[in-house]
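call fold target=Methyltransferase domain-containing protein
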Amino acid sequence: MTDDPASAWDAEYARGRYLDEPPVPFVRDVLATAHRYGHTTGLYVGCGNGRNFLPLLAGGLDLTGLDVSRTALDQLAARAPGARLHHGDLASLPPGGYPLVVGIQVFQHGDAATTRAHVRAAADRVVPGGLLCVRVNAVGTDVWPAHEVLERGDGLTVRYTAGPKRGLAVHFFAADELRAAVGDGFREVLAMRRDDTTRAVAEHGRWCQWEAIWQRKALTCRNTP
């Protein structure tokens, strides 16, 4: 058993995870919205070995890829020589904001408090007028494989006892919980929606993800009399 996402994902990427998988359709929404608002530079949190990161680069975005898995970044560097990559988490980055911050299936690792803090930390990196693009686990998922429930409240947190995430805590967000984590300083420009995917083995049920894009509200100046 492990509660170390970096080590767990190093092992998964070493086994070839995601190398041959197509990007999720949400990538098209990120590209379209980024170009509509004129934002082409930014940060991709949890870029992995490039499943979704590479199509975003090919679509004209100039992103720094961030990941806690050294194995994933080594694979990505071989696939995209010259790409700007950073090993670590958001706290390991130098201070500063980005016009575009993308996180696809990354902010769900940990318990409720930890995952909300992940979302908040990503939101804090968005400059005024910039975009936060999120796809994250949603309540309604038929959680599989074997697991134990750690928290049940606004969302759901489990610890897997089998499968590739064995030993890891993973959170499934409620809609209002996710909105609260992003905060009042943002407005939805791609309304939150739930994307449901039926698993290849029907008996394993469905996997649900929230998808949304928020824009950070511009700062307003108040004249002091």
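return ok
The CA atoms of residues 50 and 172 lie 24 Å apart. Residues 5-216 form a domain with the Rossmann fold fold (CATH 3.40.50.150).
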